[in-house]
Amino acid sequence: MTQRSYRLVGICPDQVGIVARIASFIAAKGGSIIGASQYEDTETRLFYMRYVVDADSLNMDADAFRAAFDPVARELQMEWRLTESAKPKRVVLMVSRLDHCLADLLHLWRSGDLFFEPACVISNHDDLRELVEWHGVTYHHVPVPREDAGKQAAFEQTSALIRAAEPDTIVLARYMQILPPWLCSEYAGRIINIHHSFLPSFIGARPYHQAFHRGVKLTGATCHYVTEELDAGPIIEQDVIRIRHHDTVEELVRLGKDVEKTVLARGLRYHLEDRVLVQGNKTVVFS
Amino acid sequence: MTQRSYRLVGICPDQVGIVARIASFIAAKGGSIIGASQYEDTETRLFYMRYVVDADSLNMDADAFRAAFDPVARELQMEWRLTESAKPKRVVLMVSRLDHCLADLLHLWRSGDLFFEPACVISNHDDLRELVEWHGVTYHHVPVPREDAGKQAAFEQTSALIRAAEPDTIVLARYMQILPPWLCSEYAGRIINIHHSFLPSFIGARPYHQAFHRGVKLTGATCHYVTEELDAGPIIEQDVIRIRHHDTVEELVRLGKDVEKTVLARGLRYHLEDRVLVQGNKTVVFS
Amino acid sequence: MTQRSYRLVGICPDQVGIVARIASFIAAKGGSIIGASQYEDTETRLFYMRYVVDADSLNMDADAFRAAFDPVARELQMEWRLTESAKPKRVVLMVSRLDHCLADLLHLWRSGDLFFEPACVISNHDDLRELVEWHGVTYHHVPVPREDAGKQAAFEQTSALIRAAEPDTIVLARYMQILPPWLCSEYAGRIINIHHSFLPSFIGARPYHQAFHRGVKLTGATCHYVTEELDAGPIIEQDVIRIRHHDTVEELVRLGKDVEKTVLARGLRYHLEDRVLVQGNKTVVFS
Amino acid sequence: MTQRSYRLVGICPDQVGIVARIASFIAAKGGSIIGASQYEDTETRLFYMRYVVDADSLNMDADAFRAAFDPVARELQMEWRLTESAKPKRVVLMVSRLDHCLADLLHLWRSGDLFFEPACVISNHDDLRELVEWHGVTYHHVPVPREDAGKQAAFEQTSALIRAAEPDTIVLARYMQILPPWLCSEYAGRIINIHHSFLPSFIGARPYHQAFHRGVKLTGATCHYVTEELDAGPIIEQDVIRIRHHDTVEELVRLGKDVEKTVLARGLRYHLEDRVLVQGNKTVVFS
C-alpha cells in the first residue's frame, strides 16, 4: 500500500509481440514492473492485461504516461485505462434496511483495510442514518413507492444524487430495489451488487426461502456487475457455506450474512484494485 | 467398524415422550445406545430419528429385536427399519464411459473404506469391463439405442439384471442415460445419482459447458436420489471447487472429477450407514 | 429465537439407560424435546448430552425444573446445568487496538444476530472508546505496563472490573496481553480467545510472520478456551483461508481478519448456546 | 493439452526491463505467448517467471530455442530451464502399504488426466504389486530392515533402482520410510512427499493420533519437497477437511485419505507443469 503505483489495464486483439511492445514501452520510460497479469482468450482471440508499475521509477506523472502510451494503445487497438493506486475511487453505497454489508464496508474503510472514498449512502429507508452519519458519511433517504409514477420519480432523484456524487463505482449493499434499465445502462460496468444466493441458482426474490425449499446442502452469495437483466450480469466473486437439515430459513438468513459480506468485500476489492475486466457476460479476475 | 451394531431408523408424527418411549424400550432390552440423532420438523410436525445400539449389549438378535419393537412403532405410527452394521448393502453400479467415480468406489470397497457388496456393474458401453472384472465384479454390457423401441428393450433388460442382483441400492456413477420413470419409481429412494453441477444450477446436459458460459467462480457436484423429474430429487450431499477465468471447459471437466467422486462417495456413505432420511423432496442427514 | 426453551447440559459416566432416564423425566413433566444431542466417549466412558426442551410445554419454571432434576442427576453422577434460551449471557469483552473482532461482535449483538449482553469492554488502550460508547457499552481503559509490579496492579484492577461486571463469559477479542495464571484459573472454561493462526501451528507472538516465513498455503484462526498454558486450551472452532506466494505479511494480516472474526463469532455462538462441553483438553461441540 | 508449447521458467535478480527483454526475444522468434506469470520478491529482489510459448508459432525446435536464449539468460544472470509440454516427465513412485494415493495417481495417469510417465514403483512391501502390474508398470520390492546396516543396503539398492529409472521426479505416495540425507540431497527439488497433516502442525509419526489428541477441528494434508530435515521442506500445496468430536482416530485416517490424495495430485500436477519455483524454503506456485 505504501508503494505508489500505476495500473495499466487493457483489452485488445491478440497478436504476436504485445507483451514485448508493452514491456518495452514501460522499460523505455524507466518503469519498474511490480506486477503483471495477462490472459489470452482462445475463443475470442482477445488479450487481457493488467500491469502494475512503480510510480516512483518513472520519470513522468500519470497524465504524461497516459499521453505517451496513447499511440501504443492505438497501434494495438487497445481499450485501456491507467489508474493510480494512491487515488481512492469514489463509491456510492446503496442499502435498504439490513446493515451487515454496509457496516462491514464502512468498517473496512474506516480501518484502512479497503481503500476507497465513500461519496454518500442512499437508502429507501431511514433506518441506517445514525450508523452512517457516525462514520461521517452523508446519508440520503429516498423512499421508493410501489406505484410506477412514484417509483420513476424516486429513481430520478436517486440518479441526480448519484450524478452529484460523481462516483467511480456504485455498490448495492443489499439494496432491495430493482434499478430501472436506464440507470443500469448509464453506469454499465460500474454498479456492483451482492445477491444472496449462489447464482444462477435462486434468481430473484427470497433466495433463502428458495434454497430452503429445494433442500440444498450449501448456500452462497454472488457479487456481480448489474446489467439490465435481473441477477444475470458478469459474476465477480462467489462463495458458499454449508447448511444442515435443521437450519430454518431464519438461520439460513443469518448464516448467509457472513458469506454475503465477505463475498461483497472481496468482489469490491478486486474491482477497486482494477483486477476485474469484463469479458462478455463473464469476468477476468487477476489475482 | 469393529463394533457390531443395529441402526433403528424411523419417522413418525411428533408428540411428547417419543424419545423416552424409544430409549426406555432399548434400555429394557439391555441395549447400550452408542449413537442417537433426532430431528423435529416444525413445519410438518414430523419426528426423524436414528438410534445406534451396541448389538452385543442386547439379549436378542435383529429379528427378535424387530419383533419386539413392532408394537412400539405401531403405537407411535412410525415408519421404520432396523439394519445391521455388519451386513453390507448390495449395490448395483451403473456407469457409461467415464470411470473416475466407479474406480473410486471400487477402490474404497476393495480397501475396506466403504462397506458394501458390489452386486454387479451395468454399463451402456463395454469400455470399463477390464477394470471391473479385475476387481472380481460381474460386468453387464447393455447398449442403449437412441430410438424408443430399442431403448425400452434395453431398460427392460437392465431392469431384469437389477432385479436378479437383488440390490439394496443402485448407484448411477456417471451413467449418462436418463432412466425411464417406471424404473425410477420401482426403486424410489434407492437410486443415487451424481450430477456434475451444483444443483439446481445447470440441470440437464453438459453442465460444465453451462457453467463455463455463465462464468461462475465455483463449480460443484450434487449427489441426490433419483426421482421421475430430471435432476430434481432429494439432495444428499453437495460440494464445490473454485475455478478461474483461464480454466477451459476441458479443465472444468477435469477439476470437476475430483469433486464428483468425493461427493458421490460421501453421499453413498451416508446412505449406506442409514444416515439419510427422505423428508418430502429434501433429506435429513444425521452426522 | 422466538421459542423459549431450556437447555439441559451434562456429563456423566456412561451406562445403559441414561437416555431413557433423562427422556422419561422430561416426558413426565410434559416436556417437549425440541433438540437432543449426545455423545459417548469410548476412551473415557463418559456420556455428554445437551437436551433442549420447549419451556412452554413444561408445567414448571426453570428453578422448579432444576430442583426436580437434581435427584436424577445425583443418581447418574452427572455434572450439569440448565440454562434458559431467553436469558442472555453477560459477556465482558477485552481488546487491544485492532477492532475487527470487537466491531463484528458489537454489530452482531446490535442487529440481534448474536444473543448476549455486553457487560463492558476492557482495553489496555483508549483507542476504541468512541466505537464502544457509540454502542452504549461501558469502556474501561486499563493500561498494562511492561514491568511486573505495574502489570500485577493492572491485572488486579482488571480482575476487579471483571468481578463487578458479573460476567458469564469473557472474550479476548484480540486482547494482546497474556492473562496471569490466577486470572485464567478463576474463570476456567469461561474465557474465550481468538488466536490468529491454525493452532497448534504458530503458537505465541506474530503468527502471521511465522506463517509467512514457513511458506504455508493456508492460514487460519482458532477460537479456544484460555488455560494457564499459552494457546494450548481446548479448541472450540477453527477455519482457514487460502494464501498465495505473492501475499505479503501485511496482506496475511488483512486476509486473516476475515477468518478471525468469523471463527470467533462462530465459537462464541456455540458457547453462548451451550453447545460446547469441555472434554479434557478437547471440546464436544453439538451442532 | 492439444497445443504443443514450451515452458520457459527462470529466476534472476530483479531489474528494470526484464519482461521487455524476455518478451522481445520471444517476439523476435515469432513466438506467441499463451501464458505468462511473474513474481518479484521484494525481500530478496529476485524475479521469478514462467512463460508458455506456442511451439508451433516458433521457427525453431526446443534445442535451437535453448541455444538462442542462452545469451539472454547469461546477461540477466538467470537460472532457467525450458521444458516441452508434449514430453511427459518420468516419475518414480514410492509407496508402503496404503494404496489410496498410488491408486489415485495411477488412475489419473491411465485416464490421461495427469500427464507423466510412471518409470516404476518401489515399495518396502510386496502388497501392491498386483495393482501396479495390472497398470503395466514395473514393481520393485525393496524391504527396509530396521537395523542400520540393512537399512543402508536397502537405500543403496533403492538408489540404484532410481538411477536406472532416470526419473525427473520421485513421488513418495505414502512411503512410510525416512530417506537418508544423501538420497534427499542427490535429488534435491525433485522428491515430492505427501504428509498427512497440515504442516507445520504434527510433524513426524502418527499425525492423525496427534491431531486427535490435540482436539483440532480441521485436519489436513501437505504436499512438499523433501529436504534433509524431516517434514520441513518447501510446501507446494495444502488443504484441510472438517472433523467432528465424534470422529475416532480411525475415522480421521479414513477422512484424511481423501484430502491426502487430492493434495498430492494437485501438488504433483503443479510440479509436472513447471508451475513451482523454489524460493528458499518456500515455493512460488504460478496458477
From TrEMBL, chains A, B, C, D:
Catalytic EC class: hydrolase
GO MF: formyltetrahydrofolate deformylase activity
Protein keywords: Hydrolase, One-carbon metabolism, Purine biosynthesis
Reactions that this protein is recorded to catalyse: (6R)-10-formyltetrahydrofolate + H2O = (6S)-5,6,7,8-tetrahydrofolate + formate + H(+)
EC number: 3.5.1.10
Active site as annotated: D231
GO biological process, alphabetically ordered: 'de novo' IMP biosynthetic process; one-carbon metabolic process
Stretches assigned to the ACT domain: 7-87
One matching Pfam family: ACT
Superkingdom assignment: Bacteria
PANTHER family: FORMYLTETRAHYDROFOLATE DEFORMYLASE, FORMYLTETRAHYDROFOLATE DEFORMYLASE 2, MITOCHONDRIAL
HAMAP family on file: PurU
Name used for this protein in its record: Formyltetrahydrofolate deformylase
Originating organism: Parahaliea maris
Originating gene: purU
